[in-house]
Amino acid sequence: MLPVWKSARFFSIICLLTTFFLVPRIEGLAGSTGRVFLGIDVLKQDNFQPLRGKRVGLLTHPAGVDKNGVSTIEILRRSAKVNLVALFGPEHGIYGNEKANQPVEDRVDSRTGLPVYSLYGKYRKPTGKMLQGLDALVIDLQDLGVRSYTYISAMRLAMEACFQNRIEVVVLDRPNPLGGRKVDGPLMEPGWRSYVGDYRIPYVYGLTIGELALMAKGVPGWLEVEKTALEKGRLTVIPMRGWNRDMLWTDTGLRWVPTSPAIPDLSAALGYSMTGLGAQIGGFRHGYGTQYPFRLLTYPGKRPEEIVQALRRKNISGLDYKVVDFRTSGGGKGRGVYLMVDDWSRLRPTEISFHMMQLASQWSLTNPFSAASKSEARLFNKHVGSTEWWNALTRDGARVDVAKFLHKWRTQSQVFQSMSRKYWLYQ
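The chain above was modelled as a monomer; its predicted structure follows.
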């Protein structure tokens, strides 16, 4: 995740208006008439039965809400059937007001009076002391369906700690904003495992967070716990009602709640999967700090028309391009290329990032990837997860065979999707 989006109130309004008028149906603010009940809604409908008589902790953030936008924290706290005794916060904290990449301290929540244990501070894995006295830990996190978004890493570490301490894990399921069919990008190699790549999965993995939890428990080696603890570990996933794999977020009828400061709207959520990898090294910028986060491409010394021309030559299926004016949160102005999705069924979301890397090598005086510092290279590879790609990119630069890698990753994605089907909760 990137540094906090410094947006003023007027800037947020501009973002909302431009998103409404520019974004096509797949990314629109208004959903269809679909009625989707989230995991927290189903838990309420079932009268909180799985939590009855238990001392409960809750790992969540601002997007942890029911279909009406009511916080899961408040729902559990107000229920006479639930004994909520502790809160746990991921990156950005339980209220989403903490800066990215900045440690968050434990504290007492002023709104509820409950202790809040930070899982993005001194510890990222709950300690035995944090879990002491709990019977169950509820996890309600809205993910983006993208490997490097850290909430799924927080979930994995929480599951490990709970299983080791004989505490039940209850995951309240939520939609994958990208749907349940799209799997794309490099399969992460084990050597690059980190908090921004904690599972050996493709970059876009096509599962709900509940399905991913089931897979994490089911695939040997995904959770670093003793065999006995894993076998005895209790995982309960509360499925949604009304959701199916073909649904995009716009089909759910649900309102988008920002999952982090960098993802204020659904357009950014989709863009994160498309340009998040391509703007790390090389000179491309993807609109972070403008009204088009992760959707607006600029490159030093290149006019937007030149960028459009270069991208069109790549024949990237499912994408179209529009030159737009933009404003920055600091009041600056400029022109860039807005990425438009014109055919979601044909789009491979991550594909454009790898063409961006090739173009950056072509447009730079020297190969920016071979010239990267060790720390830059390591962070890049933690996100992309492919040593083979890195070696080819640093060696061949503008001549790197992007098509060869895209073909390999598509094959890997198909294998992964076949393997993951046994964990599907929805057809």
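Residues 1-33 have pLDDT under 50 and may be disordered.
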